[in-house]
Structure prediction request, 203 residues.
Amino acid sequence: MSDEINARHAEKMKKIKAARDKLMQTKTEEKGLIIVHTGPGKGKSSSGFGMIMRCIAHGMPCAVVQFIKGNWETGEKTFLRERFAEECRFFVSGEGFTWETQDRERDIAAAQNGWKIAKEQILDPEIRFVLLDEINIALRYDYLDIDEVVDFLLTQKPDMTHVVLTGRNAKPELIEAADLVTEMALVKHPFRDGIKAQLGVEF
Prediction:
């Protein structure tokens, strides 16, 4: 019986591999992607920083521009600045979450400064990958002009540079412009049960 099951499995996998190989022969183009991580669930920034780790491993110079989070001491910021400063540039533009600063003009100024830095990093021929962490929050509150951001990404981003934009509530214009969009769904979160953000999980 097990031999018959194994034979059927092998035949099935053989067909799947043949179909997959045929499909992969049609995937020949390369390009720098515009990637959006959005949605109410956890993991948007974490996924972006996972890609940063891949870039470092592949010798691809990269940069991070953090919007909103400000001086919050995160593990990824400490890790990259202390151990991989040459491989990955790390910039912080925000002064903190909007409910902490309570100053719209300061938030706008910080976001505009972050976007200026972001454009410089994206246009730098040495940089291959740029993570714009929590930029969707700045766009949501109109601290940045969505049309300007989308136009820059579509018309000025170098062809082989990847850009990841994270944060919930990504605007429709950005989703339309992006090559790859992932929405993180919230199923359960310990915060709802009174558990605070955990070291190594949230920051």
Q: What stands out?
A: The longest helix spans residues 2-24. Helices lie at 2-24, 44-57, 75-83, 98-101, 104-123, 135-140, 146-155, 172-177.
